[in-house]
Amino acid sequence: MLAVAILAAGKGTRMHSNIPKVLQKIAGTTLLERVINCCRGLSPDKSLVIVGHQSKQIKESISSMKDIEFVTQEPQNGTGHAVQQLLPILKDFDGDILVLNGDVPLLSSSTILELLSSHRSRKADASILTARLPVPDGYGRVFSDHEGNVDRIIEDRDCTKEEKKNNLTNAGVYCFKWKKVKDVLQKLTSNNAQNEIYLTDSIQKLRTVIQIEVSDSNEVNGVNDKQQLSTCENLLQERLRTYWMKKGVKFISPNTSTISDKTRFGKDVTIEPSTHLRGENIIGDNCHLGPNSLIEDSELKANVSILYSVVKDSVIHENVQIGPFSHLRPGTNLMNDCKIGNFVEIKKSNLDENTKVNHLSYIGDCDIGKATNIGAGTITANYDGSKKHQTIIGKNCKTGANSVLVAPLKVGDGVTIGAGSTITQDIPNDSLAIERSRQITKKKNLSKD
Ligand code: UD1
Ligand code: CA
Questions:
Q1: Which ligand is nearest to the CA of 167?
Q2: Which CATH number is associated with domain 2-224?
Q3: What is the pLDDT of residue 404?
Q4: By Cβ atoms counted within 10 A, which residue in 60, 192, 223, 325 is the most buried?
C-alpha cells in the first residue's frame, strides 16, 4: 500500500507574492501540478495534498484531479505539523507514505521510484532523498555514516558554523513506514530557531533511516523565492530544448526561446531567436517559427511560417504564411495556403483555402470563402457598441483598399468592392459594389492679381 502526501500549506513568505507559492508556474505548469505529476507513475492508493494558506485557490487549481484528497492544516505550524494532520485520516494505514514538499518541481518520476524501491528492499523505517550542493545555504543538512544510514537532519538556521560546512542536503522528499512515523509524529516539538514543528526532526527518532543521493542535484532544487523560481525555469527550459533538439527540432538561438512542456513538435521545425511557445501547442512538420513570435494554445499543421507575430488559440492549416507583425486572436481558423501579412489582426474567423489578407486589416467574426483577396486596409466593423455581428464573404472576392464592411453583412461569391467603400447592405454573387462620392476635379485658379 502506498499513500502520497504533498505539503502545500505553507505561506511562501519569501516569494513576496499574492499567488500561493505552489501555484507559481514554470514552463506554464504550477509547481504543485509538477510534483503531483511526477508521483502519478507510482499509482498510489491514496493521494493527499495538505493545504492551509490560500487553500481555496490551491484546491481550485487542481479541482479536475478527482483522485486528490485535500487535508487542511490550520494554522501552518511547520512541516511536521503538516504531516501530523494525516494522523486522523490515515489512522491504521498499513503501508508506506511518500511525503514531498510542494516546492520541488524538477524531481523526476524515476528518482522517486528509486527512492521507494530502495526503501522497500532495505526495509527502512524512513528513506530520504539527498543532494550534495555547492551552495547548501537554506537547506537542512543531513548527517549520515558511510553506508548512508542517517542519524539526523539539522535545519540551516539551527546549524552551528561547523555543521553548516556539511553540504549533504535534505531534498524534502521522504518515504516513511506509516506505522513507524505515526508514533514519532506525536512526539515532535517546536524547540528550534523558527518555533515550528519540523518533519525533519522525526528522522533522529526513527531506527533505520537511509539516504539516497540524487545523481543530478538540479532535480531537488527547492523554490522559496523568485530567484530560485527563475533558476528552475531556466533549468527546465534547457531540459525541454535538449529533449526536442534530440527529436529533430532546430533552435537557432536556444537560450532566447522558451517552450511549454505541453507543446509537441513534428519533424524539421525551425525555431528562430526570441520565439516563445506557451500553453498547449501542436506544431506540424517543417514549420518555421520566428524570429520574435509568440504562439499560445494553437495547432499548426505542416509548413506554416510565422514571422514577428502573435498567434493565440488558433488553428492554422498547411502552407500558411503569417507576418511580419500579424496578430491572430482566439478562434482564428486558417485553411491551407492562406497568407496573412503586415499589421493584420484577425479574431474568431474562418478563412478558407488560399485567401489572403496582406496589409493593415482588422477581420473579426468573419467567415471568408476560398481564394478571396482582402485588400489593404479592409476593416470589418463587427461591433455596434453593445453586440458583435458576423460578416460572411464568399469565395473569389476582392475587397478594395480601405473598405469598411459593417456587420451583420453577407457578401456573395465573386464580388468586387470598390476602394474606400463603406458597405452596409448585403451584396449578391458576381456583383461590383462601390459606395463613395464622385470625385470632383477642378482647374486651380493660378492667376495672381
Ligand atoms: C524544508 C526542509 C529542509 C529541506 C528543504 C528542501 C523542514 C523543516 N525543512 O525547508 O530540511 O532542506 O525543505 O527544499 O521541513 N509547508 C506546509 N505547512 C507548513 C510549512 C510548510 O505545508 O506549516 C509546506 C510548504 O508549502 C512547502 C513545504 O512544506 O511546500 C516546505 O516548506 P518550506 O517552508 O519551503 O521549507 P524549507 O525552509 O524549504
Ligand atoms: Ca522550500
A1: 1
A2: 3.90.550.10
A3: 98
A4: 223
